[in-house]
């Protein structure tokens, strides 16, 4: 009986151990990112996506995105320990040793890059590496601590996934792929600033110059509202260039109007918890927008 209990205890410890490593890869964020990669792949071709670049591309890009997230955990581990949103992450809690986290992130990066380079194409491998470095080094290690425009400038790295999907199946740049990047690039500031309003005290406590900390909540609300207007225009670009049709036009317009309305409410008629509601809606907005893009492409 005692032996059985010890086996169960070891199994539970091992399961919890691997869950900590998985948590460092930010699986929910990576899943949303991979949706945009998939849409980029599908929109790049008139027919079905070939199986090899589909599987190898999704796996390699996913691994390198997970590595970038793990690097973010490593670089931010000291401030994470002081913030209510992040104090329970694996590194501040000591669930994963720092040395192990470094090796884990490095292995994910190397395996992902090699897979993309050999099984997809070198262009996608190098672009994905640039995106990883842009997020983990340029944004997390420098911009996040240097300027309140951190998420605007650094957002380009997080906006790259649909272009990576596009290059994975075509091995070339295309303007249509860049339009998808513009949409996510424009979506990122209102998405993140809404969270920053909700967590303003946390960022102030650790001296991170997020916009609500440096310029105030009201100014940030105005920026969110203006960016949703800009995002609404960006979402029309696929229709204007003939990349998407009527189904996407209807769906994207409805989603844009809902986002604008929520940002307007946040600015002029805020109720408790509304900033977090805007943040959550923005995630559904991007997810549904890319699903509509995909549906329009095949219908």
Automatic annotation (TrEMBL):
NCBIfam families to which the protein is assigned, alphabetical: cyoE_ctaB, PRK04375.1-2
PANTHER family: 4-HYDROXYBENZOATE SOLANESYLTRANSFERASE, PROTOHEME IX FARNESYLTRANSFERASE, MITOCHONDRIAL
Domain of life: Bacteria
Coiled-coil stretches: none
Keyword tags: Cell inner membrane, Cell membrane, Heme biosynthesis, Membrane, Transferase, Transmembrane, Transmembrane helix
EC number: 2.5.1.141
Family (UniProt): Belongs to the UbiA prenyltransferase family. Protoheme IX farnesyltransferase subfamily.
Name of the protein described by the UniProt record: Protoheme IX farnesyltransferase
Function description: Converts heme B (protoheme IX) to heme O by substitution of the vinyl group on carbon 2 of heme B porphyrin ring with a hydroxyethyl farnesyl side group.
